[in-house]
Structures are given as C-alpha cells and as structure tokens.
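Page 42, continued from yesterday. The earlier attempt failed because a stray header line got pasted into the input along with the sequence. Redoing it now with the clean sequence only.
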Amino acid sequence: MGVEQYVILGAELDFYAYRGASHARVFEVDKPATRRCKQRLLADTGKSSR
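This time it went through. Structure tokens are written below.
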C-alpha cells in the first residue's frame, strides 16, 4: 500500500515534491515570503506549483 500523501512543515527551498514524489501527494507548509520566492524560481524554470 504505502504512503499516499505527506506534509512537509517548514519546507523552505526543498524541491522534493517536484523532483521525486510522483507516487504521493505532497503538501508544503511554509512562510508566505518563502512560498513566493519558490514560486518565482519554479516559474523561471518553466515549472508550476502543483
């Protein structure tokens, strides 16, 4: 069966959800400023936040 979803608290600039978590749904919880920075970095590389 395995893990279907998990939560990363204080994810900061961890990109695991974008590079290797296709088997599970990932929720990241972080400060708004950090989320905005991460979203800009993802946009610059052509990725989108899921």
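Notes: Residues 5-44 form one domain.
Reminder to self: strip header lines before submitting.
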